[in-house]
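Amino Acid Chain and Its Fold in Token Form
===========================================
Structure side: the spatial fold of the chain, written down as a series of whole-number tokens.
Position: the record begins directly beneath this header, with no further notes in between.
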Amino acid sequence: MARSREGWQWSPNGTLQQGLPSIGVIQPPRNVGKTSEVFDVIVIGSGYTGLTAARDATTSGLKTLLLEGRDRIGGRTWSSNIDGYPFEMGGTWVHWFQPHVYRELSRYGMIDQLVHSTDYSKKHNFFSFATRSGRREMSHEEEDELFARAVQKFVNVDGNYGKTVMPFPFNAHWNKDVLQYANMSFADRIAQIQHDLSEDEQHAIESFALLCSGGTRDNSAFLDFLRWWAAGNYDYKTLLDTIIIFKLKCGQSGFAIRFFKEALETQNLAYAFNTAVSRVDGTGDVVRVLTKEGDEFQAKRVICTVPLNVLNKVDFNPPLNQAKREASALKHVNQCVKVHAEIKDPEMRSWSGVTYPNNKLVIGLADGTTPAGNTHCVFFGCDANHIHADENIQETLKAVKSFAPMDVERLVFHNWSKDEFAEGAWVWYRPGMEVKYLEGLRERQGAILFANSDWAAGGWRSFIDGAIQSGTEAALTVKEELLSRSPTSRL
């Protein structure tokens, strides 16, 4: 299996090593040379948005070039198979409530790949709760009751648990009354309900909300949380199921590679990995795309899937509209830290915990059993009390062991904050950003379309589902515009 230059792995018997194996690494890394060919469409970026757009364009008969700065597909979602177990570096969990994901799983015959992250059959079947007031253990039933109470108080802005102000999560602004919360942060909302929160409930809602946003209390938009809540059917357990319970047995790279292979089999796909785009010029009859390596490619249309936080690293001519420039300079807040730990104790498989606010990692949970019989746990931190795991592995190990006594066999992670093609994890807006910038982020500019989960329409923006949706919509637009010119080309 090929090894990506990305990701990190540490074990007690060795040093911290950069680079992880992944089936998402594409070899050979390019099948296109210098060419004067004018492609129908150039897709910039091979995350789920780019893969979907490339797949749909090529299967429609469009000559497509896929350009990717990384050595692998997947963008902010990829898995590393280590000793027969898929460690998910980024996006992980999916659900049948996410229509675009489930359609693709059905398309590729992968419904039987869905597995539970949770397993409450082992000895250490409890939840650890460590706060300013101390540490204690509780059952998972007590954990769910605590977090459900806290979340319900957090979202109950209308006396109807958000259903009145946001009845349609895929059209979140349908009821304009919801816009009164557009500038509200987590901290603002917690201040409103402070009198109604116990100390445990406040710790619960803050830790859970920061797991979702990857930001801080002050910079995370409450409106984004309302949308997640509405998409999860206004129910804590359902929301939990959609964001952190069901994953793929084969790993996300095992899913993403299906998109790439289908596009490749059409013989309409050219590609170049390790090829970062530096400039997109849409002033001529065709769009010219220049790479940092000095190559130039041309196409009738470009679908740009560059994430929000690094969109301003690409030079556009004509310049990006004001909304795109301002939003990309401001950046979304998610600086999630995600660390995997392989634990020697198989009885830890039923454990989960919170250490907040004094630990560098906030939430941890058992997520699987490795072929060696060890427990796989995954831990999340946020921009509050942030840590760069690769800079201080001992501090990272200390943060993991702060949850519970653990004999750590291995740590695996990807530093998304330092990632040159992302500078952050899934999107979470600052207060006010959604209303001010969202429509402008979605706008096309001439022959250049902008598609990404960071500004996808619908309830599952920031999820894999939103990425697939955005890629689908962009490819359909290009297909309709280019193929409609030649009726015989549809035959």
Notes: The chain has two domains: 22-78+252-331+425-484, 116-248+337-415. The CA atoms of residues 23 and 254 lie 7 Å apart. The chain has twelve helices and 21 strands. Residues 22-78+252-331+425-484 form one domain.
